[in-house]
Every structure is written in C-alpha cells, then in structure tokens.
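Margin note: ligand = pyridoxal-5'-phosphate.
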Amino acid sequence: MTDTGSMISHLECTYCDMTFSANEIHKLCPEDDCGKVLFPRYEIDRSKSQKIIKDLKNRHPNMWRYKEFMPVRDDKNIVSLGEGFTPILKCERLSYDLGANIILKDESLNPTSSFKARGLSSAVSKAKELGINKFSIPSAGNAGGALAAYCARAGAEAYVFMPKDAPLANKTETIFHGADIELIDGYINDAGARSLEVSKQKNLFDVSTLKEPYRVEGKKTMGYEIAEQLNWDLPDNIIYPTGGGTGIIGIWKAFQELKEIGVLNSKLPRMICVQAEGCSPVVDAYIEGKRHAELFKSPKTIAAGMRVPIAVGDYLIIDAINESEGTAVKIDDKSMVDGVKKLSALEGIFCAPEGGSLYAATKKLIDSKFISSRESVLLLNTGSGFKYLDGLSEQIKIN
Ligand SMILES: Cc1ncc(COP(=O)(O)O)c(C=O)c1O
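Resulting structure:
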C-alpha cells in the first residue's frame, strides 16, 4: 500500500449528527427516520495541514493534489483522468459589460468536458478501495458520461439511466465508454427510481447525487482550487448553476475545512444559487424561507443539468446560501442562451447553458444592487457548450 496520507476519520450525518465508519460501505444515513446525506469528516492536524498547503506548488496540477483531504487511503485506488486544476480566467470584457470584477473558473476543460469528472473520479476511487466494481447512476447527462469514463478507466461496470431527452453527446459518450444505458421516459427522479430498482436486482452500487458520501469530496476540490489559485484570498461572490447541488455544497464544505486549517486570508464568499425558471425547487424554497424544497412539477429547461425537480441535499444548498448571506435567482432559457452567446463572443468561452445562466444572474444581482461594482464575482462555468450542440444549434440559424 502507498499511503495517500488521507486524514479521513469517519462519516457524519449532516442532519442527525450520527457517525459511521469510513471503512464500511454507506450510502444515506441508515438511522431510523433520517436517511439524509452523510459527509466524510477529517481529523485535521492544523500544523501538518498548513505544511501540506505550503508545499502544494510542487504537486501535479489535478484535484488529487489535495489527497490528504480526500477519502482514498491507498494511492493505487485512485482512478484519475487528470481532472481538476482548471483555470480561473480574468474576464476583462465581461467585467466592462456587466460592471463588476468578473473572473470565471472554467470546468469545461475537465476530462468528459464538465465538473462531473471530479465527483465521479472520487466516488469510483473510494468505491474501488471498498471492493466495489459495479455501479449504477441516474443522470441528466454529464454525470452518466463521467461515470462511464471512470468505470472504463477502472475496468468496472457502469449502468446509466438517463431521461430520453438528455443531450446526444452524453448518450453517445456513455455508449462509447462501454456502459450499459437505459433511456427513461421521464425526469431524473424517474431515472433515479429505475437506477435503484436495477441496482437491487443486479447488486450494483448506486452513486446518485449525494446518496453516497464521496462524489461531494471530488466537487469539494473546486473550493480548494479557488482558494489556492487566488492565493487564499476568496472572491466576494460565487455564482453557481444548481441542479442536485453537489457543486455548491462541496465548495462550501471546502471553505469550512480551509477555515479549520487556518489558511484563508479573507472572509468567505456569498454563495449564490442559480436555477432555471422552468425548474426552480430550491430557489422557490429559499424565497419562501424554507429549508426543504417541494417536488417541482413538469420541469422544463434547455440546461439538462438543472432539470432536477427534487434534490436530496436541498437543505444543504439552502444552508450554504443562508450561512454565507448569499441568495438565489432563477433565469429563463432565452436568457441562458443569450448568456452562452455573451460568454462565447466576449471571452471565447463556449459554455454550457448552465454556465450561460450565470451571465443573466450576475446582471440581475448587479441591477438589484445585491452585488456592487467594487465586488469580485467568480462565475463557475460547469460544462462545455460542445455537449449541448443539439439544444444550442436549434437556437441559431446555420446556413
Ligand atoms: C453542466 C452542468 N452544470 C450544472 C449541473 C448541476 O450540478 P449540481 O449537482 O452540482 O447542482 C449539472 C448536473 O448535471 C451539469 O451537468
């Protein structure tokens, strides 16, 4: 065994605080009447951690550079395609256009062209360590493609359940990676029910968003990177396109850990959640002052990753918004596509519609004076426009 030096100590329920072993297979909290999200917890040794942080510059530019703060104990279990350490770009033309200091973290440059690579690299690696090699996943698109890729790399089996209107690129990549795909006549929650059913029949490990504890650890590395790449001086605002919420939840978890290590030079950012007008369960719950969202009926949006009518981690998204004094906004599909045009034409970033929503969200928040012209705003572009050519090409005229 080559020890990663992981400081993982146990799993903890984010709802009832019960603790569980990190050396056993767990999914949601098994306590009666709980069934909520489990988080890996670390025994963070401050001085050792600060030394690791100081030496990071000598490490490979991928998300496993933070391996002591990740759950995998043995190096040989890490299944990696080089995910992470995506650039943070200064956006001068967007800053001028919008009237605030805009920077953008471009997750479209990950393997499989979206931030989903991080979570699936982490989940497949930890599952491998626990002896698992057959997986299932319900997916709006990008997560299914990423699971298929990491399973190919690990020599593991993947079963992917996608709504039949998922982007063509996601269906195609999943099949090329050798995964089994079933198209569902319904939404992601219907795909979730089918994934669970088949996983019971075939003894598969279901890695649905936040229903196992380790995908969020991969997403968390976005927060570590934002801090490291900005010299431990965080931006005033982070704007995030939200579906199941692992991204925004993971980034907020990272900031709590970095605060505990004691390396941050600034206060924490305001976390801003963006959803589609055609599917906004979390934004609606936040506006109504609730901690839990209701099922959003008949969700409809071009941003497949935001077509999530109910999220098991709704309370964690809302907690992150409230604890950070952030906010939540919804954006219509036309504005998302206009946002893709803006990011593409002003900065050369051909983003996914999810990323496009960030332009309109920022504009709304500047217009309402929630964000002032002096503040810094980090837009988190979660994926590539190349994965949405079917949806995006319908919005323009090509001769
Ligand atoms: C491109 C893209 N952006 C955003 C999301 C939403 O992700 P999260 O689960 O972190 O809210 C997804 C999820 O599928 C996605 O594919």
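The radius of gyration is 20 Å.
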